[in-house]
Structures are given as structure tokens and as C-alpha cells.
Amino acid sequence: MRKVPMRSAGCWSIWRAALAVSIASSVAACAGRPTQEAIATYSAALDTTSTSARQGLFEIQKRELATINAKNANAILSAKPGNAHVELEAKNEIVTNDVLKPRLEFFVALSDYASALAAAASPEQATSVKVKIEEAGKAFGALGVAIRGDAANFPAEKVNSAATAFASIAAILVDAKLNHEIPKIVSSTHENLKAGVEAFKADLGDPSAGGFRALMNDATKRLVGQETILIGTFAQDVKSIGKPRLHDEIRESQGRIQALGNADMLLTSLVPALDEMLEAHEALRTPSVETTLSQVNLFLDRAEDLREAVNTFRAK
């Protein structure tokens, strides 16, 4: 696994400065206008959130598979024929591709929406605005279909409202003639976007909602139970395997449990970014107001926090 070094204060400053330069260059033609800077910053923050979240979800899937494989290989190699204490499933993957797909599509749709807003705010992209907006609409439309699938394991109490919200956003973006009218785009989509994002906040952040976070929580509990059985098996045979080997097995077992625990913790980092995303999106209804840029910068801070959390998780 590739090691991702933790960002030092200097590296953090360099990254933030580079982002500032990118934003500044995108609004150079309209320097001094808070509308342009707010939208460019919002688009950058939304893209950072989307990219970081997808990296984190891919890493969670990879870690879970590695944990399962290590656990099962250990159980198979260590179990003696007829040992009734080893009762582990051969495979119990939770984060399947079908489960991962709608979560990835959610963040892809957000990234496409960020591109659409950036295009609408930039005179240089006048010819691509309609295409960008339609692409975002199609992404939201596909998302509304994806979360309804049985294999998606989306929270049952949220799926209908979220699917309807995303379908509505798709209809607005694909059919409406919005062009460069940022306040109109934001006002037209905000309530539906809020409903959809709130549903994904429950899915990714609430272990009691029955979605992705609940699946990870259940996976951790199941793993703890199975690791207890495995360690119990070794403990019963401590005379033949020796105490050093038993201690090694306990340490490795705890590491496998911690790997899923770290994944669960990463999911909690998504919620603050999504909260600030909605607050900033609502503020963009009046993008020319100076306070709007302050709200958007708060979203950028949370996006950077998520980026750091994902990089730290991937480095462990």
C-alpha cells in the first residue's frame, strides 16, 4: 500500500497557496467581484470534497478486503482438523462494488455540479456551460436510480425522498435554460440538493440509519466476535503454539479490528464537509454579498480537513 505522508505545516501552506492561485486565475477577468471568487472557491471546495471522499471510500473497501483475507487465511492456516472453535465464515465482504457504487456516484454528481457552477461563473467557458449543466443533471439522474437498487443498502427511510430529490435536480439541470445565472441555478436546486445530501449524511454518518455507516458498524462488531473465537482457539492450544505466538496473534487480531475502526472514524469526517457544503450553497443565492465568501471559505476549510483525514487514513 502506498504511503501518503502527513502534510507538514509548510506543505499545508503550499497546497492552500496553490489553490488560492488557481482560484485567483479563474476570476482574473472579473477581479474584485465577490460573485466570481465565491463561486470559484465553492467549486474548488466541492471538487476537493468529492475527490477526497471517493479516495476514502475506495480505501475503506480495500482495507476491508485485506482485513477479511488476512483473518480468514490466519484461521484456515491455524485451525486444526475438527476444531469446533473455529467457526469463521469463508468470506463476509460488506463493502461490495454494488454497495460502493451509489456512494461514488453521489460524489461524482457533486463534482460534475461543481464543474457546472465553475463554467457558469466563467466568461471563458461560455460555450461549455450548457454541456456542463446537462452532464451534472444526468449524473444526478443516474444517482437517483442507483440508490433504489436492493444491493445498494441505502437507508430505507431516506431512499424515496432522496431519489425523488435527485430526479428533480436532474430535470431542472437538463431541461431548464439556466446558462450563467448562478443564483437561479442555486435557488432552483437548493431544496432538492439539501434533501439528497441530508439522506447521504445519514447513510455515511449515522450507524442507526441502516446505510453504509451501519454496514461498517455491523462489520466491525462481527469481526470482533469472530476474532474473539479465533483468539480463543489459539488460547486453548497455547501449550503447542507457545505464549509468544499467542501474543502475536492477539496483536494482529487487534490490528484487524482497528483497521475497520479507523474506516468507521473516517466516515464521520464526511459529515462536517457536507454540512458546510449546504450552508455555502445556500449562501450562493446571493453570491455578490461579501459575507457569502466568508461562508464559502468555511466550506473550503472543512474540505481541507476531509482531505487531511483521508490522507492520514491512507497512510496508516
Automatic annotation (TrEMBL):
PROSITE patterns, sorted: PROKAR_LIPOPROTEIN
Keywords: Plasmid, Signal
Signal peptide: 1-31
UniProt name for this protein: Uncharacterized protein
Species per Swiss-Prot/TrEMBL record: Azospirillum oryzae
